[in-house]
Amino acid sequence: MSPIMHIEEIQAALREERLDGWLFFDHHQRDLLAYRILKLKVEAVATRRWYYFIPAHGEPKGLVHSVESHVLDGLPGAIRQYSSWTTQTEGIRDLVAGARKIAMQYSPNCAIPYVSLVDGGTLELVRAAGVEIVTSANLVQLFDARWTAEQLELHLEAGRRVDRVRAQAFQKIAAALASGQTITEWDINRFIRSGFESAGMVTDHGPIVAVNAHMSDPHYEPEAQGSSPIQRGDAVLIDMWAKLARPSAVYYDITWTGYCGATPPSELQNVFEVVRGARDSAVQRIRTAVERGETIQGFQVDDAARTYIKDRGFGDKFVHRTGHSIGEEVHGTGANMDNLETHDERRIIAQTCFSVEPGVYLDKFGIRSEVNVYVGPKEARVTGEAQQQLVTIE
Asked: Among 24, 305, 331, 366, which is most exposed with the fewest C-beta within 10 angstroms?
């Protein structure tokens, strides 16, 4: 997509949102969203502040420092230069002249940290030009979180490969138990990372391999020293995420749990069934809304899972949001399934993907069950295998 066509689409979205424009700002590459959305080279030097304003109507305009006058090369519209703080202030006023309400990478009360990237001082500087600043969160979702058809296929292929490595990891534990060999959380962590590499996948960190009480730390990661052995009678949680080692590839992110034995204890089985039910309730809430053409927001999905768990007596043991957006980073910039950590009012829109991963965390163990949901124009689907029973690791 050429920058001109991209900007025309942005302008249509601005009119839909009843905004007068979208102001992009960066200094030292603090806002990589701006580079992705504007198709700028991330390698460009940005030791001075630059601004680029896309109005709802008319030609865009830019403001760059004379020391780095080429930072916005390739973008349409007149690009003005400044060097002093006074000419910068004048330039900002010129950029937003005639506008009343504009979007920036800002979120009131930092409710959505993924888009709250403009510092408070810059907000003050721009507001002094006489404009109201609102969040660009909905616009960011439209122009950064939606997948292409190719990205969906890359995700599906990553899912097939990750699911194979996941099954092999549980088999690895079973084989060690059967032979009487010692195997640890760290050993399985390394086994999974090696499996990713062999399968042509990459990840930013992880995976989580957690036994018993470690399962109740949602972001636990084992280390080479001090990780727990995996033994008969233990519960095990594996949370793993990866993407193909290809340009524009997006992540696949899942969590499965198992028990080292033939018959899981009743308490473990009960909690698994509660978490599975919450997961499926959230997924069904999404599917129903999408099939009916109804608007559904991120917080409503969280409500569906959280209500299910609360009604079964574990409400205070579900300590995180139900799900997060997924993209080229494992935590993407689209709507999160969240009414706990934040009240995410963003609409769930077509061509986006996110996790659904409720959990219940007790003193002795924790259970989380995670699937990925992709929303198309008329349907929502789980993109990989959904765990239906605890893995019995024998």
From this structure: 331
Catalogue all structural domains in the chain, each as residue range(s) with its CATH number: 3-144 (3.40.350.10), 146-392 (3.90.230.10)
What percent of the chain has pLDDT above 70? Answer: 99
Amino acid making up residue 13: A
Residue 361, φ and ψ in degrees, nearest 5: -125, 110
Mean pLDDT (the chain, rounded):
96
Using alpha carbons, list the distances in angstroms from residue 242 to 72, 204, 208, 335.
33, 8, 12, 20
Q: How far apart are CA 346 and CA 167, in angstroms?
A: 35
Instruction: Give the span between the Cα atoms of 23 and 319, in whole angstroms.
Output: 36
Q: How far apart are the first and last CA of the chain?
A: 52
State how far the Cα of 267 lies from the Cα of 276, in Å rounded to an integer: 14
For residue 265, cis peptide bond before it (omega within 30 degrees of 0): no
Tell me the C-alpha distance between 67 and 247, whole Å: 32
Give the per-residue pLDDT at 5.
53
3-state secondary structure of 372: strand
User: Half-sphere exposure of 92 toward its Cβ, with a 13 Å CA cutoff?
Assistant: 23
Q: What is the mean pLDDT of residues 190-219?
A: 97
Strand partners, 361: 366
The bridge status of strand 352-356 relative to strand 325-326 is antiparallel
Q: Report which DSSP code applies to 136.
A: -
Q: How wide is the angle at C-alpha 289 spanned by C-alphas 328 and 287, nearest 5°?
A: 60
Position 371: which residue type?
A: V
- Give the predicted TM-score (pTM) of the model: 0.94
Angle value at C-alpha 201, between 196 and 204, nearest 5 degrees: 90
In tens, the pLDDT along 143-164 reads 999 999 999 999 999 999 999 9
Confidence of residue 3 (pLDDT cuts 50, 70, 90): low
Mean pLDDT of 118-125: 97
